[in-house]
């Protein structure tokens, strides 16, 4: 059932989007949280990322990975300032710099989209190296 969902969802995404930015989540670390471990294990993050990446690359698109340390949740999508005071329990992002108020997850998604747009062309080899890793190649090209 999960595999079918992943296949259908990734196919739908690739049909509409050619360039994707994904957050490189620390799933191992997340699994150490006893309250979340079972739920996270059922999600199949790794399988989803792999299937999406394979399909995007095969369709001529690109994938950019944002480091797990990239502060997507703490960065304001409007002005770019980082709010170091934001806690995981804060579900609304309030920017102390420009006053933007937005759902925390929506803000992070916009920030990751912006990161992907910028780094798709400026980080030489980023996407290409990752695509080659999927094919089992030793080096890009």
Fold topology:
Layout: H1 2-16, E1 19-23, H2 27-31, H3 37-43, H4 45-58, E2 62-66, E3 92-94, E4 101-103, H5 104-122, H6 126-135
Parallel strand pairs: 1-2
Antiparallel strand pairs: 3-4
Helix pairs in contact: 1-4
Describe the fold and architecture.
The chain has 141 residues and is mostly helical. The chain has one domain (2-135). Helices cover 50% and strands 11% of the residues. The protein contains six helices and four strands. The chain has helices spanning 2-16, 27-31, 37-43, 45-58, 104-122, 126-135, and strands at residues 19-23, 62-66, 92-94, 101-103. It has a two-stranded parallel ribbon with strand order 1-2. A two-stranded antiparallel ribbon has the order 3-4. Strand 3 (92-94) and strand 4 form a beta hairpin. Helix 1 (2-16) packs parallel to helix 4 (45-58). The longest helix is centred in the last third of the chain and has 19 residues, at 104-122.
